[in-house]
Design brief:
The protein is α+β, with helices and mostly antiparallel strands. It has a single domain, classed as Oxidoreductase, molybdopterin-binding domain (Sulfite Oxidase, Chain A, domain 2), CATH 3.90.420.10. The strands form two sheets. Strands 3-2-1-6-7 form a five-stranded mixed β-sheet. Strands 4-5-8-9 form a four-stranded antiparallel β-sheet, with no helix packed on it. A hairpin with a 5-residue loop joins strand 6 and strand 7. The longest helix is centred in the C-terminal third of the chain and has 12 residues. The protein is globular. 27% of the residues are buried.
Length: 209
Amino acid sequence: MLLIVVPICVILEQQSSSFFSSSTDAFPLLSSSRLYSFWLPAYHRYIRHHHPVPQVDPDAYRLVVDATAGGGRKLELTLADLASLPQHEVVATMQCSGNRRKDMSSVAPTSGTSWYQGAISTASFRGPAVRELLALAGFNPHSIGVDKNNQSSADAAAAKATAESVKHCCFKGLDGMAASIILNKALNPYGDTILALTMNGEPLPRDHG
């Protein structure tokens, strides 16, 4: 059984109309003179997507969190709602799986964009924790089964079994891309699973969110 979270912002790598082709000049080699910090500015960050990036009106945007598979509910949140929640910072290094494909292709044929070593970058991301979004939607397996509403023991046991049957947290973007992680990763109170709203202190750029 899947617990579905349908975001846009959490999918950090989506398609751009200016994505790089698979030529040998797909991405310029970053020189030391362009690096002033471990946190790479958005305009120097690599871009790699599979689909066109949707045009999203921030005022009309709604994040759908569907926790019905785990006995919770479905809710919609605006960007303002998300920004009003407790914010968590995660510094992460992200790398395209094809980074240095140009070097790999010199050893054996590969397919895809002929990257140099520039398809990697580090940034500070900030946003609400996914576990807190799930809790807002009524999914908190640690409290399920605790009698707070005069539940019968059978109903409490059934709710607990439903929650425990959920194994994954799924994410879907407006561009059709989807991914999933194990539920324990999303719920870990010491973990780093967030819905990123900002990158390096600025609103998440369209090409990266």
